[in-house]
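Slide 14.
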Amino acid sequence: MNLYECLENYKKITLELIEKIKQDNDEFEELIEKRSEVLENIKNLNFSSEEFKKIVNDFDLLILDEELVRLMKVEQVKIKSKMDVIKRGRQAAKNYNRAFEFQNFFTARSK
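Slide 15: predicted structure.
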């Protein structure tokens, strides 16, 4: 595989990742692995930096990567928010159960 094909594949995978994130589809681990494999393949190729820059610019890869990073950060904030809601719910349930433990303690002592 040459540099052009590798970067073309990288772009395709990045676009798929962006679409999956936009669709709120959490099944993108396989795409991330494929993307990493493509990056490893690129590392093993011999090419000039000018050639690399030209192809990256032709494919608008920097713009796509920025979009992907932005979407991932938004998704990360959503997930953290969901985790906070779950954490607060667990804490509320725990406090609720403690209230009954103390109530049972005082009821048992007064008998």
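Speaker note: The chain is about 85% helix and 0% strand.
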